[in-house]
Amino acid sequence: MTTTSLTSAAGPLAAPATDAHALTGKRRIAFASYVDENYLPGFLVLLRSLALSNPGVCEDFVVLYDDLRPGSVAKIRDLHPRIVLRRVNDSHYDSYKKGDQDNYLVRKAYFILDVFRLREYDTVITLDTDMVVLGDLGELLRLREGLAAVPQFFYGQHKLNSGLLVIQREYLSDEFCARLDRCGRTGDYELDKHDQGILNAVLDGDFVRLDPRYNFVKRRLSGDLPVPEDTAILHFTGRHKPWQGGEAGYGQAEDRWREFELSDADFHAAYLSKPGGLHHDLLVHYGTPHVARTGDVEVARKVAAAHISTGDYQDAVDILSSVRIPLDAAWPHEVLGHALMSVSRYDEAKAQLLLATAAPNRAATAYARLAQMAWVHGDNTEALRYATAGLTVDITHRSSRLWAQRASGLPAQEQGAAEEQLAHVAFYMDRQGNAGDKLLPESVRLAFGPETGSRRWHSVHAHRLFDEAALERVNSRRGLVIGGGGLFIPDTMPNGNSAWQWNVPDALLDRVDVPIAVYAVGFNAFDGQSYRAGRFRESLRLLVEKSSFFGLRNHGSIEKVRAMLPAHLHDKVRFQPCPTTVMRRLVDGWQDPLTRDDTILVNAAYDRAGLRFGHDYGYFLAQMAQAVRDLGELAEVKCVAHSLDDEKIAFDLRREHGISMPVIPMYDFDNDEIRDLYARTKLVIGMRGHAGMIPFGVGTPVISLISHPKMAYFLRDIERPEWGVSVHDRHLAARLVERSKDLLADHAATVADVHGRQQELWKVTEANAADLRTILGR
């Protein structure tokens, strides 16, 4: 790593890749069908059946077509929120030697080969338009290797049955398409209405066999037999389709198809009445028109809650405000109150939440939110009163207990003169909170000098409303430092003033008249997570304009933030590594350990688990089980929990795979204990960003379990991307063990490499420190 690549204000010579999928390796999955006007009625039923049979599943659905009318496209889009239209190009089929191009079944057999030309996805599941989905497709979504299909029922087990294919990345390639094209042009295949001949000729029986229930052909039910209960996909092969009048002898099968021949209103109602987890996208897509049509308050609540879960707080306000909520409907009032407080409409939120406290089953949550709002406004007395009321309703209510602790905690008494202090905006973590976030504010302060207490620092909690009194206190200090983690994230503590973690209105930010230093902040959006772009961009632009120093903790964040700013502000955005990564240099009197414990510490994170794992959590857990077994031959493997939720991996490994790991409750540690534990172990395998950066900062080798782009950003900055493995990696266990062995084989050399990488980050930090001394006058 060259120093210039890190110290340049304009960033590295080549901007790093910031595509979240490329960095996390999260699998992109799509369904695909070939659709024409004649088979459109079947496809619409297929879409309804997919949603009703798998209400928690919503992946892209690629529609291959050549003659769909605009009205037909509109009907398709009404039934699925993630339709991807792809017009087929049939010119390359002209040279194929066989096949009647006017025959739909033959054309479909050709056109479906276009699926193999899709490059945006890692897994594609094809479904014929004469299919109906009756059961859970989770097994198909979890498949990760090969090309899978059901063997043919009539023509022998060495051939696959067309209609249902599960195609993985290695087949969605130019090389495989070339093989298909060569076969098609030479005519060296058999093609009839039952057989995707080109594909069978190329595969020659080399495919993963699926159970027939995933492509259960109608002909097996001749004689009006009932559809077996375990059928997942029923395929109406043959000339006579249910929407064309059907065929004698298959009445029970066609009755199953007609269960999904519904009007939009009936379909929406059927989906919204499904028990269990409904997918956010489908719930919003079907629930929004249902609420507009019916004024259904309970569905409006569900849709609003779905919006809240993805940070679309204004949409949640809008849909609940569009219906009349009865006074005694506590849950909708509570959800509306939550949405209103998330867009900083606090007075309206309070009114809604007070209504919700009337119902015993919602009162504790409503009181906790009222306590949160009071705390945000700096009223600890009111916050404690509401939190106590919540605990009175439910003594076990965790959120009420948290706000009671925050409200009753005694703030540190400031000892120094205001003119000698720096104000510090950060997220100050609670006791038993995330260990990494607990360490961050002190780490930022250490970068400005050894004194980290209230003599030199005035604390400003990022989540409290920055009001006139707070502005006056900040303006009486020598400067304002903003930093202590990934503050650029939309949903940790949402507000409508900035749309990131600091709850600061533009008008008050604009009146800060002391130097502002944004220090080592990260852009923390997950793969699949978005900001309310307009509000965040405006707040970000003002912050950059006002700042005398604007440093982000990795080049990935730099590129993301620059993309949101006008060009004239790009050069103000510079690289400032997270101070945890240079911890050895910051802690006064630091001594590297003379000996280390013979341990490997493993950390996993579970916040926003759907964004981290997708459909692959079971796979991840199985791979980690194998890795823990094999790593146990190298050292004792322990689970290190940054937060309470991080202990889940230990519970799941024991329950699912019979593996026990000791759990270290780092969430209970103070900062010195956190640093000491990480300095004394031999290796850390961590999923949280600071389960990588903190051990690295105290000189310990790390391997990152990448489920978030920020971890890949950090490893690229230190030019060690090989120290990261995606949680979706097909060979996760083997790679973890192999890389662990490499790092442990000559541990002293590995530690020396960590120190060398850290030295490069320290050079940047020192150069920035010189600029900050000029800016802040110290």
UniProtKB/TrEMBL annotation:
Instruction: Report the superkingdom from the record.
Output: Bacteria
Keyword match Transferase:
yes
Single GO MF annotation: glycosyltransferase activity
* Signal peptide (residue range): none
Q: What are the entry keywords? A: Transferase
Checking InterPro entries in the record gives: Glyco_trans_8, GNT1/Glycosyltrans_8, Nucleotide-diphossugar_trans, Polysacch_pyruvyl_Trfase, TPR-like_helical_dom_sf
Q: Where are the transmembrane segments?
A: none
Enumerate the spans annotated as Polysaccharide pyruvyl transferase domain: 480-706
Which SUPFAM superfamilies would you find in this protein's record? Nucleotide-diphospho-sugar transferases, TPR-like
- Entry protein name: Polysaccharide pyruvyl transferase
Q: What is the lineage of its organism?
A: Bacteria, Bacillati, Actinomycetota, Actinomycetes, Kitasatosporales
